[in-house]
Design brief:
The protein contains 15 helices and 7 strands. It has about 475 residues and is α+β, with helices and mostly antiparallel strands.
């Protein structure tokens, strides 16, 4: 091997290796195991080792030198994998994409050569320098296309890398690897016979297949992952709704038992009062009567609506709000049967009221007020909750996040939205500087005729309004 041939081999290896190797590091900036100086030193050491091998085996056959160059490509990949904090599949995928880019650059240069030969163009200069012109062309193409591929790796690939599950990279890298293995078999535009048009065409097809195949595989995988995550989120939300429904069911049972116990105690005290009255123990009678009036002044609970579970829950939260100096007002026009299961109806009202009371508790100034309006209209159940708050919300990517110490997306609002969707309705959350507004519409399986009181005439049939129309009307 002459001196010029040796120089050409060294420059060819460096041009076809180092720029693309640097491209692979872009998505992992900030995740290196070593400093930049050490990485550059290791790459320089590998390059010097390659050049030393060329001098040692300068008289070897062309096939041996090709195998030798391929071996160093594996060494560069090994160094790349050890340098970044990522799985072998992920680093192999990016490394193979960079190799596809290197082949594309070389294809462009060979295409230019073929066009030059077709038009009889002769490059100037001595014949010994002719092999160096393709290298100069590759550098020019790199300067022109490098910024575009930098943006591709930095803006498109880097954000996707963390979204794909680590286990998926174990087989994703095989797609570009398979096409690259087919490249010398089907394309082979760089054979000793010269540039061949069929080989160039096959090369472009293979590089396009690598790019589009990798793109569609990643996006298909991401879509499947999102579908699985959405199913898991719905299941988790359903479990949370079930737990809350059980809690509200137990709460209703406790409130009913407490009311029954109070009535029984009231009856017993009435009997005692009568007995003491017969014994003419006037002072004792007065004390018992006074005690009765103080303890059982709420013996006749307020009726907020005809739906017993919602009515019980309203009384419970009314007492809690009163203890926090919150003015809680109800305007509930709900029938005994709403067409919504009692457990989920209580979860809906409970989540709305708990969020509203919690928001009022955070207020350090101003009037604490909550207004709840609900009614059946047009075959749908509509609920509106307006509460004052301190004007601060935690909103991330359009989702309300909890201000509790554990943080995370607000479970109460998610449950409200899930129940609304389950019954073909919608939920809307709005706020301004002083007030937070929740509007919910649920499709009901009970018609207006069934939900109306018996003494009322059935209303005329009308097409049920859409959930969006009901939300706008409530807002």
């Amino acid at each position: 091997m002459s001196g010029l041939e040796m120089l050409y081999s060294v420059l060819e290896f460096l041009v076809l290796c180092l720029p693309y190797q640097a491209l692979c590091y872009i998505p992992f900036i900030g995740q290196f195991r070593f400093g930049i100086g050490k990485i550059v030193t290791l790459h320089a050491a590998l390059c010097l080792l390659y050049i030393a091998g060329l001098f040692l085996w300068r008289d070897a056959s062309g096939l041996f030198l090709q195998v030798y160059a391929a071996l160093f490509l594996f060494l560069f990949f090994g160094l790349y994998h050890l340098t970044v904090s990522a799985s072998a599949g992920k680093t192999a995928f990016l490394f193979l994409l960079s190799r596809a880019y290197a082949l594309l650059v070389e294809l462009l240069i060979r295409t230019a050569e073929l066009i030059g030969e077709a038009f009889g163009l002769v490059l100037p200069g001595p014949a010994d320098l002719t092999p160096f012109y393709p290298l100069i062309g590759m550098l020019a193409v790199l300067l022109l296309t490098g910024p575009l591929f930098y943006l591709l790796f930095d803006r498109s690939l880097a954000p996707v890398l963390d979204e794909v599950e680590e286990g998926a990279w174990d087989y994703l890298w095989t797609a570009p690897a398979a096409f690259l293995l087919l490249f010398p078999l089907l394309a082979d535009p760089f054979s000793s016979e010269g540039v061949q048009l069929p080989g160039l065409a096959a090369g472009y097809v293979l590089t396009a297949a690598i790019a589009f195949g990798s793109f569609f595989m990643i996006h298909t995988l991401l879509a499947a992952q999102q579908a699985v995550e959405e199913r898991e989120r719905r299941r988790s939300l359903q479990r949370q709704i079930d737990l809350q429904a059980r809690s509200y069911r137990e709460l209703r049972e406790q409130l009913i038992e407490r009311a029954a116990a109070r009535q029984e105690l009231h009856r017993r005290l009435a009997v005692m009062s009568f007995m003491l009255y017969q014994g003419k123990t006037k002072k004792a009678l007065e004390d018992i009567t006074e005690y009765q009036a103080a303890v059982f002044k709420e013996n006749n609970p307020t009726v907020y609506c005809r739906n017993q579970p919602v009515n019980t829950l309203a009384g419970y939260y009314k007492a809690i709000a009163a203890g926090q100096d919150i003015d809680l007002q109800f305007s509930l026009d709900l029938p005994q049967k709403t067409g919504i299961p009692d457990d989920e109806l209580c979860v809906l009202f409970g989540c709305c009221l708990e969020n509203a009371i919690e928001a009022c508790e955070r207020m350090t100034e101003g009037s604490k007020q909550i207004q709840v309006i609900s009614k059946m209209t047009g075959g749908a159940l509509a609920l509106s909750v307006d509460n004052s708050f301190d004007g601060h919300v935690s909103l991330v990517d359009g989702s309300f996040f909890s201000r509790k110490p554990q943080g995370g997306e607000g479970s109460g609002l998610r449950c409200i939205g899930e129940i609304a969707l389950r019954y073909g309705g919608a939920a809307e959350f709005k706020y301004d500087k002083e007030q937070f507004h929740v509007s919910v519409v649920l499709r009901s399986s009970v018609s207006e005729t069934e939900s109306a009181p018996e003494k009322e005439e059935p209303p005329e049939e009308a097409a049920p309004p859409s959930p969006a129309a009901l939300l706008n009307k409530m807002v």
